[in-house]
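Re-run with default settings, no changes from the original entry. Doing this only to confirm the output is reproducible before filing.
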Amino acid sequence: MKPVNSKSLLAFTFGLMEKLENGEVDNDNAKTQTGLIKQANNLLRYELDRAKVKIQLSEHNKMTNDNLELREIESKNF
């Protein structure tokens, strides 16, 4: 599995659009891949939002001498 970032996700999306335009990919396959692109984009957005909250918490903790932390739910075994 290749690492994904915004640039590679955008390149994949444009590649898919070209393949669809050239008839190399059918509509159903393109729709399926588009759904996966949306899910990957949502995860990237989640990571950015999480980073923003961590920065805000750090700033809050400095100003108020609190020790608030963001829960690490990804590392928990369910």
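The chain is about 70% helix and 0% strand. The mean pLDDT is 89.
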